[in-house]
Write a structure and sequence with these properties.
With about 325 residues, this protein is of the alpha+beta class. The protein has helices spanning about 65-80, 105-120, 125-135, 140-145, 190-200, 205-225, 230-245, 260-270, 295-305, and strands at about 1-15, 20, 25, 30-50, 55-60, 60, 85-95, 150, 165-170, 175-180, 280, 285-290, 310-315, 320-325. The relative contact order is 0.20. It binds ligand DP6.
Length: about 325
């Protein structure tokens, strides 16, 4: 009836940007990510006959209305599967610095999928967990696994084949992520809303779809060949294309700020000095700088003294979602 699970955030190397089915969270195209260490969320779930409603908390404090609705709807999926009507107490704890605005729904829903299913007495394998986590937040299906991960688009209308699988175990190839924090607080347009508006209104959306397919092929090869330059070039190009697509929406969506551009320029200059580093940016202003393990200190030092960067996090590779306790 109770369980605790932890999962790590991931950074997308080929982005997920657009759904073909909003309620089942089915993507328009596949995506590839790297699971990170150091940015994790731990979720505890207890189904309790004494509860009349789900009690959803974050760091011990009651969650906001929107999040409560989203988590309860997710718990309904688990209840349906476990054939129970019991309400649950849910609390989550994150290692992501609070003020960073880096909140990761991927880590949260991957951990929630594992904790809630275990607490409900279900024993789901990685494929089933990935399918379940996806319905909480698309990118969460990738955080079920560690290392390099691909979420395949799938074809089935019920989403049964839209799941993630591991491409490389953690540390098989030491690519790291140095994150430059370029702003704080809630983002103005959530990724959910941003991708919906992009699908519905961006004049660039059809081109994005074609580019994503091409980038997936190139990224798979780069990972198979352990070709860092190909990985970096593809990730950077793919991120720029995703943001171009968002900028092409109506009204336009701009996730970057001046700090984002300052980091991009600094990384270009680092490359000119022979340091292999490439940028990728999710639906917010922060910049993830991908670099091999040996150049992490130089990249970190080069980003830390930029005036618009208010923090630098270094992440190695993380493992998949893990069950910490179940009773
Ligand atoms: C830009 O997984 O947060 O980070 O499925 O609506 O919950 P929902 O969206 P979410 O979107 C992530 C978007 C992204 C790219 C990526 O992680 O692939």
């Amino acid at each position: 009836m109770r369980a605790v699970a932890r999962a790590n955030a991931n950074v997308a190397l080929v982005k997920y940007w657009g759904k073909r089915d909003e309620s089942l969270v089915l993507p328009q195209h596949g995506s590839i990510s790297l699971t990170l260490d150091g940015l994790s969320t731990t979720v505890r779930v207890a189904f309790d006959p004494a509860l009349g409603n789900d009690d959803i908390r974050m760091g011990g404090l009651p969650a906001g209305e929107k999040e409560r609705g989203r988590v309860s709807a997710f718990l309904d999926l688990v209840r349906h599967r476990a054939r129970t009507a019991l309400r649950a107490a849910v609390d989550s704890e994150s290692t992501v610095p609070l003020a960073s605005g880096l909140a990761s729904s991927a880590a949260a829903y991957a951990a929630l999928a594992l904790a809630a299913s275990a607490a409900a007495g279900l024993s789901l394998d990685a494929e089933e967990l990935s399918r379940l986590a996806r319905q909480g937040s698309g990118s969460a299906c990738r955080s079920i696994h560690g290392g390099f991960v691909e979420w395949q688009r799938g074809e089935a209308p019920d989403g049964s084949d839209s799941i993630a699988h591991q491409l490389l175990v953690p540390h098989a190839w030491e690519v790291c992520d140095v994150i430059a924090l370029c702003g704080s607080g809630e983002k103005e347009v959530s990724s959910r809303d941003g991708m919906r508006r992009s699908v519905n209104t961006s004049i660039f959306y059809p081109a994005w779809l074609a580019a994503a397919e091409h980038d997936l092929t190139t990224m798979r090869l780069a990972i198979a060949d352990r070709n860092f330059t190909a990985l970096g070039l593809t990730a950077e190009r793919n991120a720029l294309r995703m943001h171009a697509t968002a900028l092409g929406a109506d009204p336009p969506i701009r996730y970057w700020n001046a700090g984002t551009l300052a980091v991009m320029e600094r990384v270009e200059r680092l490359r000119a000095t022979g340091i292999s580093a490439y940028c990728t940016v999710d639906a917010g202003p922060h910049v993830h700088v991908l670099t091999p393990l040996e150049t992490v200190p130089s990249v970190q030092a080069a980003l830390a003294d930029l005036p618009m960067v208010h923090g630098v996090l270094r992440c190695g590779q993380g493992g998949g979602a893990t069950l910490i306790e179940a009773s």
